[in-house]
Amino acid sequence: MVTPAESTMKATDLFVKALETEGVDHVFGVPGEENLDFVESLRTSSIKLILTRHEQGAAFMAATYGRLTGKAGVCLATLGPGATNFATPAAYAHLGGFPLIMITGQKPIKKSKQGQFQIIDIVKLFEPICKMSKQIVHGDTIPALVREAFRIAEEERPGAVLLELPEDIAEESCSSSVIEPHPRYYATADDHALSDAVELIKNAKMPLVLIGAGANRKNVRSEISDFIHTTGIPFFDTQMGKGVVDERSDLFLGTAALSDNDYMHCAIDRSDLIINIGHDVVEKPPFFMEVGGKKVIHVNYKSAQVDQVYFPQVEVVGDLANSVTHLKNKLGTDLKVDISYFQTIKREVEKHLAQGIDDPRYPITPQRFVADTRRVMGEKDIIALDNGIYKIWYARNYKAYQPNTVLLDNALATMGAGLPSAMMAAFLNPDRRVMAICGDGGFMMNSQEMETAVRLKLNLVITVLNDGSYGMIRWKQVAAGFQDWGLEFSNPDFVKYAECYGATGHRIGATDDLVPTFEAAFQAGGVHLIDLPVDYSENQKVLVDELKAKVCLL
What we know:
CATH topology of the largest domain: Rossmann fold
Number of helices: 22
CATH architecture of the largest domain: 3-Layer(aba) Sandwich
Strand content: 15-25%
Number of domains: 3
């Protein structure tokens, strides 16, 4: 529906009115002089401007807003260096499937004021990492472009959109009207595809369900859980599919934190059919397909992107909840599935993951700090992980009970996103415990956003895993047979660093102090940073040596 124009208005007023019509309540960003008309229009609107300390922080927060709500988050930056700082979060949203709208400024396009000062072609720069990237060349096109931007950003597969607003266009007088959004519905999967899938499932002797990131973007938990527990088919998930179905289920085998050769891959290798719900190839492979090997059913909103490691034989394309429900109903309750081997593997996985959870060693080991995190986080509480070797430990060892309670990036796998993502989770969920878990390397990439967190009065615990190095690359370096060299650094005093921003700092001096410190920080409220020295010597032993020596039980 088009809302009739009351009178002419300035382009930025029209832009902000269009954002309000889309339901936008916050814009995150670092404005520049080219955005000042837009900022003034925000000042008199219902939308709150949340200043961040870096454009990356703004866009990571906005992308996480999209990830958690399904509605596109909005961020703002100026031209040139401000806009280029959006590049990594744009790629993060593009690969992760998070709806994001980026608004950037630009010098006037009708006349030159300063030659080519700060001017680069931002629109072309962002085209490869956005679903749409456009410059606004006339104020009256704003309502249509804003509506189209939100449609494209939010529709499957979600992603990033960039709109560039030049300074002279921003101050134009416009007579256009805003365009009201309307509900969107996805088509139902084709009956032939459903029948083909049902036939494959009925003929399979040892099927498995795989849950991927696409199932974590929509509210399809109950339908997928019903499908699994009605059919009795065991399931595993990808890193970004954690929590869609409660991982305490007797049918849960584990998370594919590694692409191959983990204990649970014994079950995957033995399976003759994978029912793959919500996965796509941007996420690190949970298993590898081979020509002539097991069958795979692709169940998703979009058709499969074929890759050397992924080429499903049957595709059920349509609304995810609807597809899963139809499959369940067509299968009925008389499905006969042999899960005895899978139960054996589950026991082996559980036994393996239980090792070291009470290890008293200091500095703390990965098994212990993951277990201690799980001990203090409730069923709906949220952890947001930055990127490092600890992400693998949390994916393997930390059971998720609810959707989107483990926020990690297994698509772009960028460092620096953990803290802003946790901030947005805390911003949207003030009644839940939220913890950012960062390596010391990734934390320092956007650590200045602690000031933003304190200013917003967030309740947030930030755990910094301190090993004085880029631990993931260091582990890979040694595993590849290279000399352990060149990847160590010094850190600031994290306790004093936190205090400089008005947060509370804690340093863990004994492993048994971690849980009480977590509890005290959450009870006190506000922003807390916990400096946690870690011992990563278990990486090689558990993630390499033990897995090489494992034997899949017959």
